[in-house]
Design a protein that fits this description.
single chain; alpha/beta; Cobalt-precorrin-4 Transmethylase, domain 1; Rossmann fold; 3 domains; four-stranded parallel sheet; flat
C-alpha cells in the first residue's frame, strides 16, 4: 500500500520577472512583425517554452550568420557578448534585447570597473551563455573561476585593483564559499555593492531549504540546461533531502516515491506553471491525497519591455 500522503509546494517557484519579460518580448515581436522572429540561443532554458515558441514562428539560432538580412532578432535572457551586439548592429537587424535586467546590471558593473582600471574575477559555470555574455563584455582582464581549485590557479596580471562578479543563477551557498576563497587569496578584492545572484534565484533556493526540512523527497521541475533549476536540486541534496529534476511529468519515476510520505515540489525560474500542474496530476495518480503550499516571499517585481514593443 502507498504511503504517499501529500504534495508540499515551495513558494515562490517557477517563472521570475526576467523570464516573463523575455518570453513576452518574443511573443510581442511575433505579433507585431510576423514570423519568423530569430532568437539567439534558447530564449530561456526550458524545453516546453522553446518548443511552444517554435510552433508560433520563432527560429532559435546560435550564430548570426544564420539570420537573413532585414530580419527581427531577439537576444536571449542570458545576455550576449559585446561582439554579438556589434555584429547585429553592423548587419542592420531589427534587434530586441531580452537580456534579464539583472544580468544587464552585471554587464554595466563589469564595464564600469574595467574603465576604472580593475581586472575582474567571475564566479560561474564555463560554457553557460550568461557567463559567455558577461565575460564577452571585455576583450581582456576578466578571469573565470568555477570552483575552489580554480581560485588557487587564477593569475590576474595585477592584484591592486581586482573585483569579483558572479553569474546570477549560482547556488548562493557555493558562491559564498568561492567568494570567501577569492577574498582569502586576494584580500583587497572588491565585492559587488549588491550581490549579483538575482532575487529570484535567492528566493527559490531559500524556499527549497525550508521545504527540504519538511519532506522526504524534493522534485524540481526544470530542463537539464537550466542552471537555476539544477541548483535547486543541489540545494535540496545539500540540505539532506533526496532530490530529482524532471523536464516534464513523464520523467517522474514511481520508484522514487517508494516509502515516501511527503513530496516537495518546486520549479526553476524558467519552468512554466503548466508543467508543475502536470507533475501534481501525475503524483495524484500515484496516490498523493492532498496539495498544500508553504508560506514564502511574494514576488511583485515586473520589468518593462523594450521600446518598440510596449
Amino acid at each position: 500500500m502507498s504511503t504517499l500522503q501529500d504534495i508540499v509546494l515551495a513558494e515562490p517557484r517557477g517563472f521570475c520577472a526576467g523570464v516573463d519579460r523575455a518570453i513576452e518580448i518574443v511573443e510581442r515581436a511575433l505579433q507585431k512583425f510576423g514570423s519568423p522572429v530569430y532568437v539567439r540561443h534558447e530564449i530561456v532554458h526550458n524545453t516546453f517554452v522553446v518548443e511552444d515558441l517554435k510552433q508560433r514562428g520563432a527560429i532559435f539560432i546560435e550564430d548570426l550568420s544564420q539570420v537573413p538580412a532585414g530580419a527581427t532578432l531577439v537576444f536571449s535572457a542570458h545576455g550576449v557578448p559585446k561582439s554579438v551586439e556589434q555584429e547585429a548592429e553592423r548587419r542592420g537587424f531589427r534587434v530586441f534585447d531580452a537580456t534579464c535586467p539583472l544580468v544587464t546590471k552585471v554587464h554595466v558593473e563589469v564595464a564600469k570597473l574595467h574603465q576604472e582600471g580593475y581586472e575582474l574575477i567571475m564566479i560561474g559555470h564555463k560554457g553557460h551563455p550568461e557567463v559567455e555574455g558577461t565575460m564577452g563584455q571585455l576583450s581582456r582582464g576578466i578571469y573565470l573561476v568555477e570552483d575552489l581549485a580554480d581560485v588557487a590557479r587564477v593569475s590576474p596580471e595585477q592584484t591592486k585593483r581586482l573585483a569579483v562578479v558572479t553569474q546570477t543563477t549560482l547556488s548562493v551557498d557555493d558562491a559564498a564559499d568561492i567568494t570567501r576563497a577569492v577574498m582569502a587569496r586576494f584580500p583587497n578584492v572588491r565585492q559587488p555593492k549588491q550581490q549579483d545572484i538575482c532575487y529570484a534565484t535567492q528566493n527559490r533556493q531559500d524556499a527549497v531549504k525550508l521545504l527540504s526540512a519538511q519532506v522526504d523527497l524534493v522534485i524540481v521541475v526544470g530542463s537539464p540546461t537550466s542552471s537555476n533549476s539544477n541548483r535547486l536540486r543541489d540545494v535540496a541534496q545539500r540540505y539532506g533531502c533526496e532530490s530529482h529534476m524532471v523536464d516534464n511529468a513523464g520523467e517522474l519515476q514511481q520508484e522514487w516515491l517508494a516509502g515516501k510520505t511527503h513530496i516537495g515540489l518546486t520549479a526553476g525560474a524558467s519552468a512554466p506553471d503548466i508543467l508543475v500542474q502536470q507533475v501534481i496530476a501525475r503524483l495524484r495518480a500515484f496516490g498523493a491525497l492532498s496539495v498544500r503550499s508553504l508560506d514564502g516571499v511574494q514576488e511583485t517585481i515586473k520589468f518593462p519591455l523594450p521600446k518598440g514593443l510596449k
